[in-house]
Design brief:
The structure is a homodimer.
Chain A lengths: L4 H8 L3 H9 L6 H14 L5 H8 L4 E7 L8 H16 L3 E7 L5 H10 L5 E4 L7 H8 L4 E4 L12 E4 L1 H14 L5 E5 L7 H15 L8 E3 L4 H14 L5 E4 L2 H13 L9 E6 L2 H5 L5 E4 L2 H16 L8 E4 L2 E3 L10
Parallel strand pairs in A: 1-2, 1-3, 3-4, 4-5, 5-11, 6-7, 6-8, 8-9, 9-10
Antiparallel strand pairs in A: 10-12
Helix pairs in contact in A: 1-2, 1-3, 5-13, 6-7, 8-9, 10-11
The structure holds a DNA duplex (30 and 30 nucleotides).
DNA sequence: CTTGACATCCGAAAGGTTTCGGGTTATGCT
DNA sequence: AGCATAACCCGAAACCTTTCGGATGTCAAG
């Protein structure tokens, strides 16, 4: 197994160079020679060794993404859909996608050093930004092509190529929607502090309240870890300690699904007693009952755009729009309940 | 950018060999030398070039999967979940996953030749078997490690490593369930003829009817292409041309979701007028309304098992259970309606 | 007959790593 | 002093490809 140029060279009597150039379609090889060589190559089932080619060309035609991976994160649709979008756009450019899944125990930075530093891929997609993200710092330091889904925290400049949604505006819309529906006591479940977009979502919450002249009460705010369980816990504590709350803004859908459980657990009705809103618009949001009001972000499209931006950078195209902020959209569903009169 | 062994060798005054062996942890290197070399390597931010290593070792520590990819297949949860399972198990063995998405226009075999023949991966996972699957034939012919999700069609021996569910039994269970609920006119929506498991699902349907002594009526059978739309069309034609039908068995959930639309379109009530059952138990099945009765197959676990089996083959472990058939499970949900009296 | 152009071909290097087989030096022993 | 051994080190080859810079031979024009 493993027919090489050398094998074809020996069989055909020509040199490796000529075989390579014949198969490569160069015009400094006799037409008869080419025919003979291609025929032999086909007979022997020659396939160029891509690894050798990659080494030689310093091009892998592959983009990489490193994803956290635990059994319970299996239903994290965000990454799922993002990866689909990436793969879809990549396939149009005949690029492959290398996924390196990291167990929770593993040091994430190691994976970046290995994959990016080790020249495994032409470019890399960084998926959920942290404050002062060490991955971004590293990739910049070694000058490796990369793009970012998300951006730096609000106080920091995002001096790297990224695509993000305007999640501050998104959360603000959601808050205003609830205020419009007559709610005055609105809880908030935030992502962890170290996630970069947490600041934006908090700002959106504050902005929404401020516009309506409602004072922000820190005891209405909880933090989760983006996973379902933490949404359950946060909502539980929020409702137990602040019985006056009638609406909860949750910063991602997965936690919102958890919060649904907590609301039921407290014998309250979602929508009617407690209005609930999420963020992301994962498929499940539409299908839960009651369906979940949420802020839609075009995850699949973000994946596609990230890929196209990355490929431009790889091709040294010096793209114009180095940072793109997409709008998001309020999806009003049953968990909003109805307007209080 | 790109610090190599050579750079470290020059800076440290030792040879490339010694640098390699020092960093590799061999014991024929003086302890002081090793310290010096590791220090320099760290200072310079050395990362071994994985491509070069792969070329030399003929090992990529990567497994590959080639997936069909179109924008509308974006919601094909089966592949999504399978890939998650694969990635999860792979990460435990420090293997990466190479995904090559193929546009519908592309020749699938080309991708296999490129990736497997081109030594891009140590092993490959073949995901949805066809009758006389050319991909399997090819991989066998070049003796490239692979495992298969699914198996050969009923009439053929599956002389390759595979993991599959007993879908004949699954469909049979579903048919018996409907018969038990009092249905006598049961439609069937099959996958395309060229898919290997179509035969098993057909057999399950026949077996279920036979056991109950109900004659099989060919006009109750339609074929779709596994996608949502085709389920819609098939159900539509089935109900229009055979108004006596009261239950439909659909061979995958995605088509079943489409069939739901068709039933509604015909002003019939899912469950009450027309009982509906799917296959796969994708997440959406639980969340639609009404929720979808379906045959559960453990897709995530299949992905994990496939990976473990493949890695054993790669390690030349000559695994025992070269073909595994897992049981599947009937999930009775609202689309079953109630037992007719 | 010489020169130049053209068609066709090829050797060798480069890309970065690992490893085989051997080489050098110092140490310990008789 | 002589020799075996251990400790440490290194050159070169191999993995397979592409490409640079020629090399060779033929033929037509001068």
């Amino acid at each position: 197994m493993g027919v090489t140029l050398k094998d074809i060279a020996e069989k055909s009597g020509f040199s490796i160079t000529t075989v390579s150039r014949a198969l490569g379609g160069f015009d400094d090889v006799n037409e008869d020679t080419r025919k003979l060589i291609t025929q032999i190559a086909n007979e022997m089932g020659y396939q160029p060794n891509l690894i050798a080619r990659q080494l030689r060309d310093k091009r892998t035609h592959t983009i990489g993404i490193i994803t956290p991976m635990s059994a319970e994160s299996a239903d994290d649709d965000f990454f799922n859909i993002l990866i689909k979008g990436i793969a879809h756009a990549a396939s149009e450019y005949h690029y492959d996608l290398l996924i390196s899944a990291q167990l929770p125990s593993a040091d994430e930075m190691d994976a970046y050093r290995r994959i990016a530093g080790g020249n495994r891929v032409d470019g890399i997609i960084v998926a959920r930004t942290y404050r002062d993200d060490p991955r971004i710092q590293y990739l910049k330091s070694i000058d490796h092509p990369f793009v970012v889904s998300g951006r730096a925290e609000p106080e920091q400049a995002s001096d790297f190529p990224y695509i993000d949604v305007d999640s501050q505006a998104g959360i603000c819309m959601l808050v205003e929607h609830f205020i419009d529906y007559g709610h005055r006591h609105i809880g908030l479940i935030l992502p962890p502090e170290h996630i970069a977009f947490t600041g934006f979502r908090y700002n959106g919450y504050r902005e929404g309240l401020e516009t309506a002249g409602i004072p922000l009460r820190p005891e209405y705010i909880r933090q989760g870890d983006l996973r379902r369980d933490s949404g359950y816990n946060a909502a539980n504590s929020l409702l137990t300690e602040n019985p006056e709350i009638t609406a909860i803004v949750v910063c991602n859908d997965l936690m919102a699904l958890g919060a649904m459980g907590a609301i039921r657990q407290q014998n309250k009705r979602i929508g009617l007693d407690i209005a609930l809103g999420g963020f992301d618009d994962i498929p499940a949001a539409r299908h839960t009952s009651p369906s979940l009001t949420t802020i839609h972000q075009p995850i699949f499209e973000i994946g596609e755009r990230l890929t196209r931006l990355l490929l431009k950078i790889i091709m040294q195209d010096n793209p114009q729009n180095i940072g793109q902020i997409l709008p998001c959209k309020l999806m009003i569903r049953d968990s909003s309940g109805t307007r209080k009169t």
